[in-house]
Amino acid sequence: MKWLITGAAGMVASDLKRALTGRGEDVVALSKSDLDITSTRRVQQAIGDARPDVIVNCAAWTRVDDAETNEPAANAINGSAVELLAHAVNRVSSRLIHLSTDFVFDGTKRTPYEINDRTAPLSAYGRSKLLGEIAAAHAERHVVLRSSWLFGHNGPNFVEAIRRQIVKGTNPLRVVEDQKGRPTYTPHLAEAIIRVAHSEANGIFHYADEPECTWFDFARAIVEELGAAIDVKPVTTAEFPRPATRPAYSVLSTERYERVTGVRPASWREGLHEYLHA
Ligand SMILES: NC(=O)c1ccc[n+]([C@@H]2O[C@H](COP(=O)([O-])OP(=O)(O)OC[C@H]3O[C@@H](n4cnc5c(N)ncnc54)[C@H](OP(=O)(O)O)[C@@H]3O)[C@@H](O)[C@H]2O)c1
Fold it and tell me: What CA–CA distance (Å, rounded) separates 8 from 11?
């Protein structure tokens, strides 16, 4: 199977590329400087030249708070560009795997979000990602793979934010405990992408590591893994206002992923241990 990865310098893309090359797969990995996905001409040319079996779109505007004041720019990358990819994918009879997010949900549920639950994003970023999901569906063969709360070696993430606070000597750490989700280690997500690609099943999938937790729980695990003698105090979202509203509850149900691949999601705690100590 021949793969083309967009946004190849990003966090998920780097781990996906590593996982695929480790298996000896044929991979064309294009970073933003190789392929700007907002350029119709360059998208058609890159996909027409490579003629991949599957294109994994890891390119995205991911600065959630900045999207609030730059919605047209976020929409161009997360929405319109995905339309270009979908059309180029159809021209070469390829398949599009497009990454999306738990932020397409409003977080009002209290049981895990199923793939067909109503989307109602609360932020400009979430709206832009929803546009991308709609655009991806214009590829005749497509997967929209939603994930959540990513951490990995090749991008800024929550684990690094906590580590920075610890290094600065912040004590106690104050972390929100009224948002619940499923942290996901990007090498685990990379494996999930490969499994879904090999399944040949299309449509929406959710992949996230197990189990669900709050940011407060996640921070406590990070402090424990680092052996830091620091208190972690729970605070509310209202005490930590940010430009973009986050869903209070964005636990993704991975039932379809488990049924189609026959594999249970990995543990974020094991991922965290590997991330910090391997
Ligand atoms: N991070 C999370 O917690 C999270 C959670 C759920 C879902 N997701 C989704 O997972 C996917 C991958 O996220 P990630 O965390 O790996 O993101 P990332 O590290 O920010 O990587 C995205 C990459 O896309 C590149 N890019 C931006 N505009 C581009 C363009 N016009 N053409 C080509 N490349 C472009 C970026 O380059 P520059 O940095 O140079 O702009 C960056 O290298 C995204 O779809 C994201 O929405 C992320």
Answer: 8
